[in-house]
Amino acid sequence: MVLHFGGCRWTEPISLRELTVVPAGRPGANPEWEPPLWDLAALTPEAMLAVDGVWQPVLAVVRTLEGASPKWRGVYRQAVQRVLALPEAERVLRSDLLWYALSYVSRRRGSVEAREMMTITQELAPNATLLDDMRAVCESVERSWFEEMHHQGLQQGLQEGEQRGPLHTLRLALSTVLETRFGSLPRSVAEAIERCTDTQRLQEALPTATRVTTLAEFHL
Asked: Residue 26, SS3?
């Protein structure tokens, strides 16, 4: 199966015969085999939600986010409802699909809107067992998001500050993590980071910077 996430319809060859060159005199060496193609650019979110099953509704979330559609919240809610309707025998699939949808939201819309969708996901859980499962999924997505932000901030800080010593590197890494999550830093926060000369304190502040939900919770 081929999933095409591009902004325009797939127009390239897809069959094995189109993609390979057959030596002269061996016409039977190239069978006409064509994998199933899901061309998201050719489908509307409404059409994907109308399909039976759970895969296309989840991919409809991707479709609306890639196209910057204002409908994405409603599409997300409908997709989650479909996934939550899976039987208990499909528990692993259910968790994996919701993790995928939430992870995509977090990468395209940021941590604030991802948490909004996490709240909606838990509110839609019809019973206590499913609620526990959804909480576990949301916690897993949050850990992945925080770890990624921590890594990105640390890597950027290391790259830009490697020539200027560990103190500058840690200051820059901490500032980058906070700016990635919350935007431009208030002067008071930026100055507090710049004044800090304790490398151990700065290093310990990095994980905290990935966990706080607002800048007001961050203290150095």
From this structure: coil
List the Cα angle 26/28/34 in 5-degree steps: 125
Contact yes or no for 8/22 (Cβ under 8 A): no
Tokens representing residue 143 in the block: 């850990």
Region of residue 53 (phi > 0: left; psi between -120 and 50: alpha; otherwise: beta): left
Choose among 194, 204, 200, 146: nearest CA to 171. 194
How far is 155 from 149, CA to CA, in rounded Å?
10
Q: 4: which strand partners? A: 39
- Backbone φ and ψ of 175, nearest 5°: -60, -40
Residues 16 and 80 in one domain: no
pLDDT digits (tens, 9 = 90+) for 14-48: 877 777 766 666 655 566 777 778 787 788 888 88
Asked whether residue 143 falls in the same domain as residue 50, the answer is: yes
Q: Which two three-digit tokens encode residue 208?
A: 């905290």
How far apart CA 75 and CA 208 sit, in angstroms, is 33
pTM: 0.56
Max CA distance (Å), the chain: 77
Q: Coil, strand, or helix at residue 197?
A: coil
Q: Residue 157 domain-assigned?
A: no
